[in-house]
Amino acid sequence: MIFAVVGLVLVGVISVLNLAILLVVLRRWRELEASGAGGGHSHGFPTTGAISSIRTGDRLPDFSARALDGTVVTERTLLDKETLVGFFSLTCKACVDAVPLFAGHAERLRADGGTTLAIVHGDDSADSELAAMLREVMDIVIAEDSEAELSKRYGAKHYPSHAWYGPDGVVTTAGAGVSALRAQPVAS
Protein backbone atom coordinates (compact mmCIF):
# COMPACT_ATOMS: atom_id res chain seq x y z
CA MET A 1 0.00 0.00 0.00
CA ILE A 2 2.81 2.40 0.85
CA PHE A 3 4.41 1.80 -2.55
CA ALA A 4 1.16 2.72 -4.32
CA VAL A 5 0.90 6.00 -2.37
CA VAL A 6 4.57 6.87 -3.04
CA GLY A 7 4.07 6.03 -6.73
CA LEU A 8 1.00 8.26 -6.99
CA VAL A 9 2.79 11.15 -5.26
CA LEU A 10 5.76 10.72 -7.61
CA VAL A 11 3.48 10.75 -10.69
CA GLY A 12 1.77 13.88 -9.34
CA VAL A 13 5.09 15.69 -8.80
CA ILE A 14 6.31 14.77 -12.29
CA SER A 15 3.01 15.95 -13.81
CA VAL A 16 3.23 19.33 -12.05
CA LEU A 17 6.85 19.73 -13.15
CA ASN A 18 5.90 18.86 -16.74
CA LEU A 19 3.08 21.43 -16.66
CA ALA A 20 5.43 24.13 -15.32
CA ILE A 21 7.94 23.49 -18.10
CA LEU A 22 5.19 23.62 -20.72
CA LEU A 23 3.93 26.95 -19.38
CA VAL A 24 7.44 28.44 -19.48
CA VAL A 25 7.93 27.31 -23.09
CA LEU A 26 4.55 28.71 -24.17
CA ARG A 27 5.26 32.03 -22.47
CA ARG A 28 8.64 32.25 -24.23
CA TRP A 29 7.00 31.54 -27.61
CA ARG A 30 4.54 34.36 -27.00
CA GLU A 31 7.37 36.73 -26.06
CA LEU A 32 9.27 35.85 -29.23
CA GLU A 33 6.13 36.30 -31.30
CA ALA A 34 5.39 39.70 -29.75
CA SER A 35 8.94 40.94 -30.30
CA GLY A 36 9.15 39.65 -33.86
CA ALA A 37 12.38 37.87 -32.95
CA GLY A 38 10.92 34.55 -33.90
CA GLY A 39 11.00 35.64 -37.52
CA GLY A 40 7.47 34.94 -38.56
CA HIS A 41 4.04 33.98 -37.37
CA SER A 42 2.16 30.83 -38.11
CA HIS A 43 -1.09 30.06 -36.37
CA GLY A 44 0.14 31.52 -33.08
CA PHE A 45 3.59 29.96 -33.10
CA PRO A 46 6.79 31.72 -34.11
CA THR A 47 8.74 30.42 -37.07
CA THR A 48 12.34 30.96 -38.05
CA GLY A 49 13.23 33.41 -40.79
CA ALA A 50 14.63 30.65 -42.98
CA ILE A 51 11.41 28.65 -43.18
CA SER A 52 8.94 29.43 -45.94
CA SER A 53 6.07 27.36 -47.21
CA ILE A 54 6.46 29.06 -50.61
CA ARG A 55 9.28 27.41 -52.51
CA THR A 56 11.60 28.42 -55.33
CA GLY A 57 10.10 27.16 -58.58
CA ASP A 58 6.47 27.51 -57.45
CA ARG A 59 4.24 29.19 -60.04
CA LEU A 60 1.82 32.05 -59.55
CA PRO A 61 -1.52 30.51 -58.63
CA ASP A 62 -4.64 31.25 -60.63
CA PHE A 63 -6.71 33.80 -58.73
CA SER A 64 -9.04 36.74 -59.06
CA ALA A 65 -9.47 39.23 -56.23
CA ARG A 66 -10.54 42.81 -55.70
CA ALA A 67 -7.83 45.18 -54.48
CA LEU A 68 -8.57 47.84 -51.90
CA ASP A 69 -8.66 50.47 -54.66
CA GLY A 70 -11.48 48.51 -56.34
CA THR A 71 -9.53 47.07 -59.27
CA VAL A 72 -9.76 43.39 -60.10
CA VAL A 73 -6.40 41.65 -59.84
CA THR A 74 -5.57 38.28 -61.40
CA GLU A 75 -2.37 36.30 -61.82
CA ARG A 76 -2.12 37.83 -65.33
CA THR A 77 -1.77 41.27 -63.70
CA LEU A 78 1.54 40.11 -62.23
CA LEU A 79 3.04 38.41 -65.28
CA ASP A 80 5.71 39.92 -67.56
CA LYS A 81 7.41 41.84 -64.74
CA GLU A 82 9.28 41.05 -61.59
CA THR A 83 6.85 40.97 -58.67
CA LEU A 84 7.27 41.02 -54.90
CA VAL A 85 4.31 39.50 -53.06
CA GLY A 86 4.06 40.04 -49.31
CA PHE A 87 1.77 38.19 -46.90
CA PHE A 88 0.70 39.96 -43.71
CA SER A 89 -1.58 39.16 -40.78
CA LEU A 90 -3.41 41.48 -38.42
CA THR A 91 -2.34 39.29 -35.48
CA CYS A 92 1.38 39.60 -36.26
CA LYS A 93 3.45 42.41 -34.69
CA ALA A 94 6.41 41.53 -36.91
CA CYS A 95 4.22 42.29 -39.94
CA VAL A 96 4.04 45.95 -38.92
CA ASP A 97 7.81 45.97 -38.42
CA ALA A 98 8.25 44.53 -41.94
CA VAL A 99 6.41 47.36 -43.74
CA PRO A 100 9.47 49.67 -44.01
CA LEU A 101 11.53 46.80 -45.44
CA PHE A 102 8.85 46.11 -48.04
CA ALA A 103 8.77 49.84 -48.81
CA GLY A 104 12.47 49.84 -49.66
CA HIS A 105 12.16 46.82 -51.91
CA ALA A 106 8.99 48.20 -53.52
CA GLU A 107 10.60 51.54 -54.38
CA ARG A 108 13.52 49.93 -56.21
CA LEU A 109 11.36 47.32 -57.87
CA ARG A 110 8.89 49.95 -59.10
CA ALA A 111 11.76 52.03 -60.54
CA ASP A 112 12.83 48.98 -62.55
CA GLY A 113 9.35 48.36 -63.95
CA GLY A 114 8.29 45.73 -61.43
CA THR A 115 5.27 45.64 -59.17
CA THR A 116 4.37 44.75 -55.61
CA LEU A 117 1.37 43.02 -54.06
CA ALA A 118 0.44 42.88 -50.39
CA ILE A 119 -2.12 40.38 -49.09
CA VAL A 120 -3.44 41.30 -45.64
CA HIS A 121 -5.04 38.46 -43.70
CA GLY A 122 -7.62 38.89 -40.95
CA ASP A 123 -11.22 39.86 -40.32
CA ASP A 124 -11.80 43.55 -41.09
CA SER A 125 -8.33 43.73 -42.65
CA ALA A 126 -9.53 46.17 -45.34
CA ASP A 127 -10.08 48.87 -42.72
CA SER A 128 -7.02 48.06 -40.63
CA GLU A 129 -4.07 50.29 -39.84
CA LEU A 130 -1.77 47.66 -41.39
CA ALA A 131 -3.66 47.81 -44.71
CA ALA A 132 -3.46 51.63 -44.65
CA MET A 133 0.31 51.47 -44.09
CA LEU A 134 0.72 49.00 -46.95
CA ARG A 135 -1.40 51.09 -49.33
CA GLU A 136 1.20 53.84 -48.98
CA VAL A 137 4.12 51.61 -50.07
CA MET A 138 2.78 48.72 -52.15
CA ASP A 139 1.26 48.93 -55.65
CA ILE A 140 -1.60 46.53 -54.97
CA VAL A 141 -3.15 45.68 -51.60
CA ILE A 142 -5.71 42.91 -51.20
CA ALA A 143 -7.54 42.25 -47.92
CA GLU A 144 -8.74 38.77 -47.10
CA ASP A 145 -10.84 37.46 -44.23
CA SER A 146 -9.88 34.82 -41.70
CA GLU A 147 -10.43 32.04 -44.25
CA ALA A 148 -7.25 33.22 -46.07
CA GLU A 149 -8.26 31.73 -49.40
CA LEU A 150 -5.73 33.74 -51.41
CA SER A 151 -2.86 33.07 -49.00
CA LYS A 152 -3.73 29.37 -49.16
CA ARG A 153 -3.61 29.47 -52.98
CA TYR A 154 -0.13 30.95 -52.81
CA GLY A 155 0.90 28.46 -50.12
CA ALA A 156 1.66 31.13 -47.51
CA LYS A 157 1.30 29.88 -43.96
CA HIS A 158 3.70 32.16 -42.10
CA TYR A 159 3.44 35.90 -41.50
CA PRO A 160 5.12 38.01 -42.65
CA SER A 161 6.20 36.07 -45.72
CA HIS A 162 7.32 37.16 -49.13
CA ALA A 163 7.97 35.71 -52.54
CA TRP A 164 9.82 37.20 -55.50
CA TYR A 165 8.33 36.16 -58.83
CA GLY A 166 10.15 36.53 -62.11
CA PRO A 167 8.42 37.83 -65.26
CA ASP A 168 7.51 34.23 -66.10
CA GLY A 169 5.47 33.90 -62.87
CA VAL A 170 7.90 31.51 -61.15
CA VAL A 171 9.25 32.08 -57.62
CA THR A 172 12.92 33.02 -57.66
CA THR A 173 13.27 33.43 -53.88
CA ALA A 174 10.95 33.34 -50.88
CA GLY A 175 11.18 33.62 -47.14
CA ALA A 176 9.27 34.02 -43.90
CA GLY A 177 9.92 36.59 -41.22
CA VAL A 178 11.53 39.99 -41.05
CA SER A 179 15.07 38.58 -40.98
CA ALA A 180 14.48 36.69 -44.24
CA LEU A 181 13.30 39.89 -45.92
CA ARG A 182 16.36 41.77 -44.64
CA ALA A 183 18.57 39.06 -46.11
CA GLN A 184 17.01 39.48 -49.57
CA PRO A 185 18.97 41.68 -51.96
CA VAL A 186 17.01 44.76 -52.95
CA ALA A 187 15.64 44.37 -56.48
CA SER A 188 18.13 45.61 -59.04
Please tell me about this protein's structure.
By secondary structure, this protein is of the alpha/beta class. The protein has helices at residues 2-35, 75-78, 93-111, 129-137, 149-154, 178-183, and strands spanning 40-42, 45-47, 64-66, 72-74, 83-89, 115-121, 140-144, 161-165, 171-176. Helix 3 links the parallel strand 5 (83-89) and strand 6. Helix 3 runs parallel beside helix 4 (129-137). The radius of gyration is 21 Å and the shape is elongated. Residues 35-50 have low confidence and may be disordered.
Helical content class: 40-55%
Main sheet: strand order: 7-6-5-8-9
Mean pLDDT: 83
Tell me what portion of residues adopts beta-strand conformation: 15-25%
Distance between the termini: 77 Å
Structural class estimated from helices and strands: alpha/beta
Element order, helices and strands? HEEEEHEHEHEHEEH
Helix run count? 6
* Largest beta-sheet characterization: 5 strands, mixed
Radius of gyration, CA atoms, in whole angstroms: 21 Å
Stretches where pLDDT is under 50 for at least 5 consecutive residues are 35-50
Please state the overall shape, judged from the principal axes of the Cα atoms.
elongated
Total number of β-strand segments? 9
Secondary-structure blueprint:
Blueprint: H1 2-35, E1 40-42, E2 45-47, E3 64-66, E4 72-74, H2 75-78, E5 83-89, H3 93-111, E6 115-121, H4 129-137, E7 140-144, H5 149-154, E8 161-165, E9 171-176, H6 178-183
Parallel strand pairs: 5-6, 6-7
Antiparallel strand pairs: 1-2, 3-4, 5-8, 8-9
